[in-house]
Amino acid sequence: MTTANQTDTPILEVKDLHVSIDGQEILRGVDLTVRPGEVHAIMGPNGSGKSTLANTLAGRPEYTVTSGKVLYNGADLLKMQPEDRAREGMFLAFQYPIELPGVRAWQFLKAAIDAKRVHQGEEEMGAREFDRLLRSKVEEVEIDPELVRRSVNEGFSGGEKKRNEVLQMALLEPKLALLDETDSGLDIDALRIVSDGVNRLRRPDNAAVVVTHYQRILNYIKPDYVHVLVDGRIALSGGPELAEQLEARGYDWVREGVDAASG
């Protein structure tokens, strides 16, 4: 369970968040509080708004916030540009990581680390220091060292792309990691490696929000809280046992409860 002190300032506070895409409302009043040391799982059926929540928090421009408030470490997240959110320690692991032809993975990683360091008033990392750090993290997340010499994600398998994102997380050490269905398309071995990488990053001063449709990744990444998103709202919250109930019963019983309450 969580190692957080419940009097700590939350890393993330989402209050009555409404979000639209192309004029269609997807999130219809989401409330969520994430404190240091916690892992929250966001589950729900397809189209419920899970990925919309993660992408909105990261600042993707196609998602329009129509009302609500989001605080990140006490600051107004919605006033921050996406790149500033990243520099302040927010990380989004994509459901479908994109390829960057012509950009070497190690160059991309060093540029990301240097951008964060400069934002924090530090000097850029020296080449030798970065090389040592990169080698240690490559071993830690069990990724093929050859992949960091190639263009970012170009020709990578699905599992290699996800490992590459875990490598990025290991290097950047985010304050808040948003994992958008990072288990999508992974076999059991890749799922274990990705989950182990996420678990190694868990500390009392950071947090993670794991967005997933299935319970299986939560066998490896143990959440403190599970929230069920239905029709753009959090319909039910509970502990890790809630994920097991969802695996056994599906989502219809949650939706039926929502319909009964609204009726």
UniProtKB/TrEMBL annotation:
Alphabetized GO MF terms: ATP binding; ATP hydrolysis activity
Keywords in alphabetical order: ATP-binding, Nucleotide-binding
Coiled coil ranges: none
ABC transporter domain segment(s): 12-256
PROSITE patterns: ABC_TRANSPORTER_1, ABC_TRANSPORTER_2
Protein name: Probable ATP-dependent transporter slr0075
Pfam families per the UniProt record, alphabetical: ABC_tran
The organism of origin for this protein: Geodia barretti (Barrett's horny sponge)
First and last residue of the signal peptide: none
